[in-house]
Amino acid sequence: MMAQQNGALPKHLTETQTKTYLQYKRKLAKHLPNARIAWVLPIKKNIIEVYVETEKLTYRTGLKAAKLATEVEDQTGVTIILR
After folding, report:
1. pLDDT of residue 8
2. 19-82 has which CATH code?
3. Backbone angles phi, psi at 30, to 5 degrees
4. What does the pLDDT look like over 12-33, one tens digit per residue?
5. Domain definitions of the chain by residue range
6. Residues 6+ apart with CB under 8 A from 25
7. What are φ and ψ of residue 49, in 5° steps?
8. Low-confidence ranges of the chain (pLDDT < 50)
């Protein structure tokens, strides 16, 4: 079962973390349309933890989600930890 997503932004993130989260969310929707972000949690100033849900978790989808996270990290400087 997929978690419901609303359009509200997380209020507990800093501006840079929010920018990173939105950029990752857009890339994930484009490349893996069946994947959804269930929650995001700030760990440190430059690290966020993101829980990604998919209908069927496979090695290929996990690898693609990780590659997208690395691309966003290179652009924004905020590390994304996937759960």
Report:
1. 62
2. 3.30.300
3. -75, -45
4. 899 999 999 999 999 999 999 9
5. 19-82
6. 37
7. -110, 130
8. 1-4
Q: Which residues contact residue 12 at a Cβ distance below 8 angstroms, ignoring those fewer than 6 apart?
A: 41, 42
DSSP 3-state of 33: coil
pTM of the model: 0.86
Please tell me the distance from the alpha carbon of residue 71 to that of residue 28, in angstroms, as a whole number: 11
With tokens 């969310």, the residue in question is 25
Strand-pairing partners, residue 59, are none
Residue 51 pairs in a beta bridge with 39
Which pair of tokens denotes residue 71? Answer: 């691309």
Measured distance CA(36)–CA(52) in Å, rounded: 6
Please check whether residue 53 is in contact with residue 34, taking contact to mean a CB–CB distance below 8 angstroms.
Answer: no
